[in-house]
Amino acid sequence: MKLVLFTKRFPGKTPAELADWGAAWGLDGFDLCIRPDYPVNPANIADALPAAVETFRARGLCVPIVTAAGELTSPDDFGALGILDAMEKSGIPLLQLGYFRFQPVTRSYASEVERIRRIFAEWEKVSRRFNIKVCYHTHSNKLMGMNAGGLMHLLSGFDPKCIGAYLDTGHLVSEGEDFGTAVAMSRSYLSAVALQDVLLERVERNGHGAVKRRWVRAGEGMVNWTAVFDALRDANFEGPLSIHAEFRDDDGDSAAAVAREVAFIRERLRAKAGLEP
């Protein structure tokens, strides 16, 4: 396993600046955000991605996964093949796709599953061409594949060498799915895990009770970290662990807050035999 940081939170940081943080914080590398307005983006990826990877490697850091824009869901989308080509040349094995949104009032779930599976069939072909595994992330709030149960409706039957599951500790809590159960359901496809914590709060909305998601520092929310790392150890998980750290900083110091997040996760990994990256 590699403990990496998702760079979504730091669009203004250059690869060299990220490398300084990675080395100081004891990271293994980065889950690099490949989106417009980031140092590495779809417009410059052919040159910028290999350069970034070399910058990281010079500091002993890796890039086991990159994350595309939330709108990138099909290999026919603009820039998709360019991302895969640059990834292959840079030796990056995993790509996180964007998201398929779902409106339960106006759409048929079964029809959406069939439509998305046709898209994954095309991704499977492209994956073999570029030797890149395409992963889908369990993200809450009216998206297809919000938890492992829904995700496996989309992925089952495809080649797990080509198509992967990317579980998220916080979003699974938000959708009410036990992490160990999620691992059991997706185990043959499990390729990456996002690490973040969430606190669910009851609020009043339009005269009714509702749930508010509040992203918090690891250990301050509802994620059972012992159960998470037990499940990963028992599954012999070897993929990247991506720290998302999308909580709000009370003190305004994002770097210090993320450094604390990394230290928290490292401490829990050391407590589990066989899980220290």
Give a nutshell description of this structure.
This protein has 277 residues and is of the alpha/beta class. It has helices spanning 15-25, 45-58, 80-90, 109-130, 148-155, 169-174, 179-186, 225-234, 254-270; strands spanning 2-6, 29-33, 62-67, 94-96, 133-137, 163-168, 190-195, 197-205, 208-216, 240-243.
Detailed description of the structure:
This protein is of the alpha/beta class. The chain has one domain (2-270): TIM Barrel (Alpha-Beta Barrel), CATH 3.20.20. It is built from 9 helices and 10 strands. It has helices at residues 15-25, 45-58, 80-90, 109-130, 148-155, 169-174, 179-186, 225-234, 254-270; strands at 2-6, 29-33, 62-67, 94-96, 133-137, 163-168, 190-195, 197-205, 208-216, 240-243. An 8-stranded parallel barrel has the order 1-2-3-4-5-6-7-10, surrounded by 6 helices. Strands 8-9 form a two-stranded antiparallel ribbon. Helix 4 (109-130) links the parallel strand 4 and strand 5. Helix 1 (15-25) packs parallel to helix 2 (45-58) and helix 2 runs parallel beside helix 3 (80-90). The radius of gyration is 18 Å and the shape is globular.
Which keywords apply here?
10 strands; globular; 9 helices; TIM Barrel; single chain; two-stranded antiparallel sheet; alpha/beta; eight-stranded parallel beta barrel; 277 residues
How would the blueprint of this fold be written?
Elements: E1 2-6, H1 15-25, E2 29-33, H2 45-58, E3 62-67, H3 80-90, E4 94-96, H4 109-130, E5 133-137, H5 148-155, E6 163-168, H6 169-174, H7 179-186, E7 190-195, E8 197-205, E9 208-216, H8 225-234, E10 240-243, H9 254-270
Parallel strand pairs: 1-2, 1-10, 2-3, 3-4, 4-5, 5-6, 6-7, 7-10
Antiparallel strand pairs: 8-9
